[in-house]
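Subject: Re: docking follow-up (zinc ion)

Dear J.,

Thanks for your patience while I sorted out the input files. As discussed at Tuesday's group meeting, I've set up the holo structure prediction with zinc ion included as the bound ligand rather than trying to dock it afterwards. The sequence and the ligand SMILES I used are pasted below, so you can double-check that they match what you have on your end before we go further.
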Amino acid sequence: MIDLKLERQIELLEILAKGCKKHPAYRAMRKATEKCEECVYIWQARVELNALENDL
Ligand SMILES: [Zn+2]
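The structure tokens for the complex came back this morning:
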């Protein structure tokens, strides 16, 4: 289970590291505007990552 969690965390970190092509300045420090799907996707990755970290 721990390994699966770690794998998911790495996946999410990669999504965050790549960022949005249209908005390279967006670092998911606050909620994305719903206008850009890619930013919303990154924001969701951030939320899930935080949830995983808090669940350790
Ligand atoms: Zn964007």
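A couple of observations from a first look. The chain has one domain: 2-54. The radius of gyration is 12 Å.

Let me know if you'd like me to rerun anything.

Best regards,
T.
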